[in-house]
Write a structure and sequence with these properties.
Order of helices and strands: EEHHHH
Number of strands: 2
CATH topology: Arp2/3 complex 21 kDa subunit ARPC3
CATH architecture: Orthogonal Bundle
Structural class: mainly alpha
Radius of gyration: 14 Å
Distance between the termini: 22 Å
Number of helices: 4
C-alpha cells in the first residue's frame, strides 16, 4: 500500500495500488480464509505504520471490504472454472 498513485481524471483520494495481489495469490493457493487474513494483516500494518487522517481506520476498513469484494469473487469463479479461460475471465472482470 506504500506504492500508490492517483488516477489523472479522478479525485486525488482515488489511487491505484497493487496491494491486493498477495491476497489474490493467497486466495488462489490457499482459499478464501487465507485471502481474508492477508487483507486484514495488510490493512492492520498500513494503519499501524501510517495511521489515519480521522484517527479511526475508516479508510482501512473500506479498503478491507473492497479487497474482499475483489478477491472472493475471483476465487469462486476460478474454483468453478479451473482452466486458462476461467483465469482470464477472473482477471478481465
Amino acid at each position: 500500500m506504500l506504492i500508490k498513485f492517483p488516477l489523472p481524471t479522478f479525485p486525488a483520494y482515488l489511487t491505484v495500488d497493487f496491494s491486493d495481489i498477495p491476497a489474490l495469490i493467497a486466495a488462489l493457493l490457499f482459499g478464501p480464509i487465507a485471502a481474508i487474513v492477508v487483507e486484514f494483516i495488510k490493512n492492520l500494518i498500513d494503519y499501524l505504520m501510517i495511521g489515519s487522517e480521522a484517527g479511526l481506520p475508516i479508510g482501512n476498513l473500506a479498503n478491507f471490504l473492497a479487497g474482499i469484494s475483489f478477491v472472493l469473487p475471483t476465487y469462486f469463479v476460478y474454483k468453478r472454472l479451473k482452466t486458462k479461460k476461467g483465469m482470464m475471465f477472473c482477471f478481465i472482470s
